[in-house]
């Protein structure tokens, strides 16, 4: 039933926004898609989430913001084309759902003066907490990989709770980094970061796990400590090859029995 809901939701809401941005001339877009490079696509998703990419810097003026918007469009288009040409139906749909929130939020920042000013104002904060923010994403990737390797019998019927736990723990972690760095981050900056992450991830959560509350107190522990440590050892090599939350999310949802 969950898989059916996801497919219907994507069909209705994602197709229009996943069209190639008109501002990008196709002749200027060099996509080595014949190789279907999964790692490169994963790295692009990491860049789009901002905090987990070592090379991405928040724009702090109008010129750098314009460059940010152009580069964002290129990254979005690459992932879109990769999904369309290289992925099977269900992974393509999950990728499209994840990208829906990212593309919509970035278009808002790049088209609305007020939001653009908010990000430029928050640039110093974003760049200051970037290293700590990367650790928040690493924890989220680790948690998704752990869920992926849990026994199916232990997570059927609980998948939404686990997904919500990871997403909202990620959001809280990032906002906490801002609130704990008052010398660089104002309360407005912390709010902007919360809105940014909710915009990026909200569509996934609301589409996959409708009617689940934002609170995740009941999911404070995914597993008992002994089992958690066992799975952490199991995923060490996979952690080193996973750059964003997308691959484990696809695997988790794809493993749910019909």
UniProtKB/TrEMBL annotation:
Assigned keywords, A-Z: Signal
Source species, domain of life: Eukaryota
Range of residues in the leader sequence: 1-19
PANTHER family: RE45066P, RE45066P-RELATED
Identification of the protein by name: Uncharacterized protein
Organism this protein belongs to: Dermatophagoides farinae
Lineage of the organism: Eukaryota, Metazoa, Ecdysozoa, Arthropoda, Chelicerata
